[in-house]
Amino acid sequence: MDSLTLDPLSHAEGDVQLPGSKSLSNRLLLLAALAEGETRITNLLDSDDVRHMLNALQLLGVDYTLSDDRRSCTVKGTGKPFRTDQALELFLGNAGTAMRPLCAALCLGQGDFTLTGEPRMSERPIRDLVDALRPLGAEVTYLKEEGYPPLTLHAQGLRGGTVSIRGNISSQFLTALLMAAPLANGDLTIDVEGELVSKPYIDITLHSMQLFGIKVDNENYARFFIRGNQTYRSPGEVMVEGDASSASYFLAAAAIAGGKVRVYGVGADSVQGDKAFAEVLGKMGAQVTYGPTWIEVSRGSHLKGVDLDLNAIPDAAMTIATTALFAEGPTAIRNVYNWRVKETDRLSAMATELRKVGASVVEGEDFIEITPPARLTPASIDTYDDHRMAMCFSLAAFGDAAITINDPGCTRKTFPEYFDLFRQITR
Ligand SMILES: O=C(O)C1=C[C@@H](OP(=O)(O)O)[C@@H](O)[C@H](O)C1
Ligand SMILES: C=C(OP(=O)(O)O)C(=O)O
């Protein structure tokens, strides 16, 4: 297996232009495909997750043109749900933002669609979404294990009504239902059952729908109302913000090492919940400044451990776990049960790899507590085909010990050029 050894680092300094947000790229592509009119999307992310969405749209007959660098895309919207006469199979890798939204959107149309992915995708739940779609007329067959992809949709449109959807495992189920709802054949009321996790991602969804002309009534994230028989309308041109989760590694580098790092593309005006990551660094003692479209971090006082519920920022929260290696005292990251159903079981993977560098770790069912070692141990870090494991552990190289990252190429899921940019701002 390929690996990358990072020699000990001591300084972080510079500006980073962030690649486009994964969450926005995949939402905007899907909505542009369903919308009436042509949409030019700029600053699109070019990574595996987005390529899977683009490939699926191509197989669905959507006409789009990508620029040579694949960072802008002009999509000719169909103005209506997808149809197929021949059964279609769509391979979606391990992209939750393709699998879940397409599952709901395809049910709006006509024909048989099979959704498959990488082996890990068959371990990532989808039952809560399917259970909400079935009462609306969706016919879904699980091809392997009940409740998990791969699955076949026998699409024949969706009707309106009132449905409940469980919110405690993934917000992507609600996102998927919300994005499909305006094209259903009747008005839809959605009741969210139980706790809604990763709530700020719903704001990204509502924002994206609004860009395409659709307003959703949101009663405190517990009940949503969407009129049926509507049409998405292209806004013409839309620019994807920089990815706020990708920003976390660079900002954390500055907090740990001193120096000053500014990321461009996400700032105070961002719609992405992960911009709040910088506030967590602030609570740990870093100096944080926000502009409308940038965030700058430099090291303030000595970093100190925190004890926080980070359910709202599950992706960026992983970066806090490795930042904790450089803080005084223990850090607890709470209410992150769904780390277990993402690219890997992230609670278990994080605990295992943090122990390799010498940390004492308590792994709970839905939390992790990290007590940093006096001095980090050189280690070879396994990444479990999880881009965020690879990116988070690059920060461990600030600990006076060489860190080897196994399979660094796994960052291709959301950030293929990560290690090049990381190298540019560190020494
Ligand atoms: O809707 C989205 O774009 C996402 C929602 C989150 O997932 P969950 O809602 O499953 O926590 C997040 O972890 C994922 O990377 C992207
Ligand atoms: C959980 C993630 O991805 P997905 O969109 O596949 O859920 C992630 O990017 O950390």
Automatic annotation (TrEMBL):
Asked whether the keyword Transferase is assigned, the reply is yes
Q: Where is the Enolpyruvate transferase domain?
A: 10-420
One Pfam assignment: EPSP_synthase
Does the record bear Amino-acid biosynthesis in its keywords? Answer: yes
Q: Where does 3-phosphoshikimate bind?
A: K22, S23, R27, S170, S171, Q172, S198, D315, N338, K342
Entry superkingdom = Bacteria
Q: What EC number is given for this enzyme?
A: 2.5.1.19
Q: Which GO terms describe its cellular component?
A: cytoplasm
Q: Which GO terms describe its biological process?
A: amino acid biosynthetic process; aromatic amino acid family biosynthetic process; chorismate biosynthetic process
Q: Name one GO molecular function term.
A: 3-phosphoshikimate 1-carboxyvinyltransferase activity
Keywords of the record, alphabetical order, are: Amino-acid biosynthesis, Aromatic amino acid biosynthesis, Cytoplasm, Transferase
* Alphabetized NCBIfam families for the sequence: aroA
How is the quaternary structure described?
Monomer.
Q: What is the protein's name according to its record?
A: 3-phosphoshikimate 1-carboxyvinyltransferase
Which species is the source of this protein? Nitrincola lacisaponensis
